[in-house]
Design a protein that fits this description.
The chain is of the alpha/beta class. The chain contains ten helices and six strands. The protein is globular.
C-alpha cells in the first residue's frame, strides 16, 4: 500500500471534482481515492478551510498548513504537488530530501529553466521519480496518433498546426509535450513577440 500526500488542495488538487457536471475524474485526490493500492494519508495547504473540507470528504485525518511539519511526521511514498509553479522547486527539494519515492508535480515544471534543472538534479541524486503532469501522452487517442505517425499511416508529415487555450505557460505546455511525444525533441524554435492589444476573450483565457 502506497502512502500518498497532496500539497495544494485547490482546483486540480481537490476542487475540480466538486462540479457535479464533470463525468470523469479531474483531481489528484479523487484519482487516489479510486485506487486500491494507494492510501491518501495527508493533505497540505495554506487554506485551513480547504483542509477541513477535503480532509472530511476523502477521510484524510492528517492535514497540515506547513509542509515541513508534514514531512517530519509522515513517511510518504508519493507526493502530488498541486501548487503554483513558483513553489515547485522548494516543494520538490523538500519532498525528495525527505525520502519520498515518487513526486507527481503539476505543470509547468517550474518558473525558470534553472529551477527545473535543479529539481531534476535533486531527484536524480536522491533517486526520486519525478513526473510532470503531462498525462495526454497516456491517452489512447494520442498513442494511436503516435503509432500512425511512426507506421507512416499518415504519410510524411511536413507541417502541423496546434491550438490550445489558457496560455502557453499553463495548459499550453500539454501541446508542447504532445509535439515532443509525436515527433521527438525540438531541434530549434523561433518566436515573434506581438504588440497587439489583448481582446476581452484573451484576457479571460490568459
Amino acid at each position: 500500500m502506497y502512502k500518498v500526500a497532496i500539497i495544494g488542495c485547490g482546483r486540480i488538487g481537490c476542487g475540480f471534482d466538486d462540479d457535479p457536471k464533470r463525468k470523469t475524474i479531474s483531481t489528484h485526490a479523487k484519482a487516489y481515492s479510486m485506487l486500491k493500492n494507494v492510501k491518501l494519508v495527508a493533505l497540505c495547504d495554506i487554506d485551513k478551510e480547504k483542509l477541513e473540507k477535503y480532509g472530511s470528504r476523502y477521510n484524510v485525518k492528517k492535514t497540515y498548513l506547513d509542509y515541513d511539519q508534514m514531512f517530519n511526521e509522515q513517511t510518504l511514498d508519493i507526493v502530488s504537488i498541486c501548487t503554483l509553479e513558483v513553489d515547485h522547486l522548494d516543494l520538490v527539494k523538500a519532498a525528495s530530501n525527505a525520502g519520498v519515492r515518487a513526486i507527481f508535480c503539476e505543470k509547468p515544471i517550474a518558473d525558470t529553466i534553472e529551477h527545473a534543472k535543479e529539481m531534476i538534479k535533486v531527484c536524480e541524486n536522491n533517486r526520486t521519480i519525478l513526473m510532470i503532469d503531462h498525462q495526454r501522452r497516456f491517452d489512447p487517442l494520442f498513442s494511436t496518433i503516435k503509432s500512425n505517425i511512426e507506421n507512416n499511416f499518415l504519410g510524411r508529415i511536413y507541417h502541423c498546426v496546434f491550438y490550445y487555450t489558457a496560455g502557453l505557460f499553463n495548459t499550453g505546455t500539454h501541446i508542447i509535450d504532445l509535439m515532443r511525444y509525436f515527433f521527438g525533441d525540438i531541434e530549434w524554435i523561433i518566436g515573434e513577440y506581438s504588440n497587439a492589444k489583448s481582446s476581452k476573450i484573451n484576457d479571460l483565457l490568459f
